[in-house]
Specification:
The chain has 468 residues and is an alpha+beta fold. It contains 13 helices and 17 strands.
């Protein structure tokens, strides 16, 4: 982990300017709050009591909006995976004030000093969240899988559940490293790698770029990068399996909404192969882009450059709603399979609607009119929301980078050249972890160089380096 901390007593090192710039508001109208409060006391309806399943949650430290809880069992013939998802359908009345408000928001927007929630916190961090030790309405997915991790049967139903414990990724990873995992997740160490192997066989594309994170540190902020823990990757496979199963249900019924991404075009793959050749990284002709990228050592500078180049393989993500006629594009190139979002309804609008489709279809019921009418609206709502979330995240990182580096203009740093043009390149400085532009003619892509900080402007949120 690399980090650099800026400590200051200044009250202006907050993110209110970004909230104002992008029109973000954490508060909700009075009618929405009133409806949410009423929903808390509403009965969850007649549903089976499955609180005996020893579910647990794995989330970032301190999280309160807990969407998923899981329990894995190793059986004589394979695995049984229980995956409980927060049931927002028990709280949101279609066409009501709350429904209208969250459609306008699209998703929870995260900033370093507090989020802008999709739902009022009385729901997202309270009555709808799968907090430990309390009974909650949930949508329970149950997968019966073969010994190689392939689902043989899938069941989805509403139920009452109770999480036994709330864990974070680091503590779960430590428990596996010590050989003492919680019984509910012990099988994850076997099941997770099986699912990841299946993903590689499908040709799934995963980029192992360093992720910048912003953390509080006293009265200031620090930038950090963290290697992805095995548990994080294993846990993500459970969510991906669920999204793939939901997409399969929708496609069979010819109704729903998919998360799509076109396959990389030949020109993008050819350009990546040329980059690999220039960097002297072997790429066998029979190896798919996903398999090639999965085999790279993420700590090497040439690998970082190739991961950056490979972002051009994953362009054109969107949502495709359908009812009666299956769309031409039904797959997601990153997953290498049909896929949809159903596992984060507290934080993402589309998941609630996609879940309701799966529940109706598997129950042999027609979609209610409100749901059928909403499907065509979701792609544009989610597209706008995704774009906003990405801009806010980038602005927040730019702001902290400028704060951290302010006063260090003229100092030199080690950097890796990620993507080079004729006059400038994108570089990654590891300490502090910063992605920024660097001026210089034909900088050596995939190599380490020394750079000098030329500009760090907190007002403009701009950082620029030059070759030393």
């Amino acid at each position: 982990m690399a980090s650099l901390v800026i400590r200051t007593g200044r009250a202006d090192l907050a993110f209110d300017d970004i909230r104002t710039e992008f029109g973000l508001r954490a508060s909700f109208p009075a009618a929405v709050l009133a409806e949410a409060e009423q929903a808390v006391s509403r009965s969850a309806g007649d549903r089976p009591d499955l609180t005996s399943i020893p579910l647990v949650t794995i989330d970032p430290p301190g999280a309160k909006d807990l969407d998923q809880a899981l329990c894995l069992e190793r059986t004589a013939s394979g695995f049984v995976v229980h995956y409980a998802i927060a049931d927002l359908g028990a709280f949101v009345t279609p066409g009501g004030a709350l429904d209208t408000e969250v459609r306008g928001r699209g998703q929870t927007i995260y900033l370093p000093d507090g989020n802008v929630p999709l739902h009022p916190t009385v729901l997202s961090e309270g009555a709808a969240s799968l907090l430990p030790g309390v009974v909650r309405p949930a949508v329970l997915w149950t997968f019966t899988c073969s010994a190689d991790g392939v689902p043989e049967s899938v069941e989805v139903r509403r139920a009452l559940v109770r999480s036994q414990a709330q864990f974070d990724y680091a503590s779960v990873q430590e428990s596996f490293d010590a050989g003492t995992p919680h019984p509910s997740v012990a099988a994850l160490a076997e099941f997770g790698p099986l699912r990841r192997a299946l993903a590689r066989e499908r040709g799934a594309i995963e980029l192992q770029l360093p992720e910048q994170e912003i953390e509080p540190d006293g009265s200031g902020w620090k930038l950090v990068t963290r290697p992805r823990a095995q548990v994080d990757a294993w846990n993500a496979e459970i969510s991906l399996m669920t999204g793939m199963a939901a997409a399969s249900i929708m496609l069979q019924a010819r109704v729903g909404i998919l998360r799509t991404l076109p396959n990389p075009d030949a020109a993008a793959v050819s350009a990546l192969r040329k980059s690999a050749s220039a960097l002297q990284v072997p790429w066998p002709s029979d190896l798919s882009p996903g398999a090639f990228l999965a085999g790279l050592d993420a700590t090497r500078p040439e690998s970082l450059a190739l991961f950056t180049d490979a972002t051009r393989l994953l362009r054109g993500a969107g949502y495709s709603a359908f009812n009666g006629q299956v769309p031409e594009l039904v797959t997601h190139a990153g997953v290498a399979a049909p896929y949809t979002h159903v596992t984060a309804p507290l934080r993402r609008l589309v998941d609630r609607f996609a879940t309701e489709v799966c529940l109706a279809v598997t129950a042999g019921q027609e979609l209610p009119s409100w749901l059928a009418e909403a499907l065509p609206q979701l792609p544009s709502l989610m597209g706008a929301s995704d774009s906003l979330a990405a801009k806010v995240e980038r602005a927040s990182l730019d702001q902290v980078e400028a704060w951290v580096l302010a006063g260090r203009v003229g100092q030199e740093f080690d950097a890796v050249v990620l993507r080079a043009g004729d006059q400038e390149a994108e570089v990654f400085v590891s300490a502090p972890p910063v992605l920024a532009k660097c001026s210089g003619r034909q900088l050596p892509e995939g190599e380490r160089i020394r750079v000098r900080l030329a500009e760090a402007d907190p007002v403009e949120r701009r950082v620029r380096f030059e070759r030393a």
